Amino acid sequence: QVQLVESGGGLVQAGGSLRLSCAASGRTFSSYVMGWFRQAPGKEREFVALINWGGSDTYYADFVKGRFTISRDNAKNTVYLQMNSLKPEVTAVYYCAADRAWTWDTGKTLYEYDYWGQGTRVTVSS
Question: Which distant-in-sequence residues (6+ apart) come within 8 Å of 3 by Cβ?
């Protein structure tokens, strides 16, 4: 069992930055591929970024366009999402998710992830 707790969300002006954190419980954090997803009001949850077990491989949604960076610190059981040059359209609740994957697969749907956090709200004002 893994528990995920996101933090770092908040209200920021357009052009600003935020760093989201997701702290995981348990001693097997490095066994999980970690992802960030987001859900805007009235929309379905969608993929944002993915990072492999050791942090050497990452994958991003097209709309990230180099503005977001996912990273992880396995010693701290934490995955991060650095978000720069924020725009109002990225306003959403951001969730981290853990996938006990055996292979690196960037095509998984959100339904294939094993654990989810409760989300942290990001609001970007214009």
Answer: 24, 25, 26, 115
Distance separating alpha carbons of residues 124 and 69, to the nearest angstrom: 18
- Give one word for 62, left, alpha or beta, with left for phi > 0 and alpha for psi -120 to 50: alpha
For 82-99, the pLDDT digits (tens) are: 999 999 999 999 999 999
User: Cβ distance 36 to 59 under 8 Å?
Assistant: no
Q: Check if the beta carbon of residue 124 is closer than 8 Å to that of residue 86.
A: yes
Contacts with 8 (C-beta within 8 Å, 6 or more apart), sequence order = 18, 19, 20, 21, 120
The token pair that represents 21 in the structure block:
């954190």
Q: How many other C-beta atoms can be found within 10 angstroms of the C-beta atom of residue 4?
A: 23
**21, β-bridge pairs:** 7, 80
Q: At 100, give phi and psi (nearest 5°).
A: -80, 70
Give the percent of the chain with pLDDT over 90.
87
